[in-house]
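Researcher: Next entry in the queue.
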Amino acid sequence: MTRDVQLVKDLVTRVPAFEDLYESHVFNEDGVLPHVFFWDVTLATVDSYLGNEDEPDWRSTLEFLEEQSALGVPEIDEVIVTSFLNSLPFPGKPGHELVEHLGPVLAAKFARVRPTG
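Model: Structure for this entry, 117 residues:
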């Protein structure tokens, strides 16, 4: 199993509220595509931050991603940076304030990929 697929499985284990999303991806894609899955994780995380209690808790998701990003594994970083951090709302869009809650490792990577926010 590749590291990026393991990242998805580890997220679902850590934040079980993502299990339905995971199962949907496996069914629809005949497996899980980490970058596609993390696009939906980003949307769910922002929705949770904006107060949608039906979505997985945004704090738990950010905590998990901070820990994984701190490992410095290129395959993991590629998914987190490309398909999560780079997909967060831009300034002036609902949910952009979520970036103020990124841990130090995620915040540094966010600043590199999106220096203007």
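Model: The chain has a mean pLDDT of 96.
Researcher: Noted, moving on.
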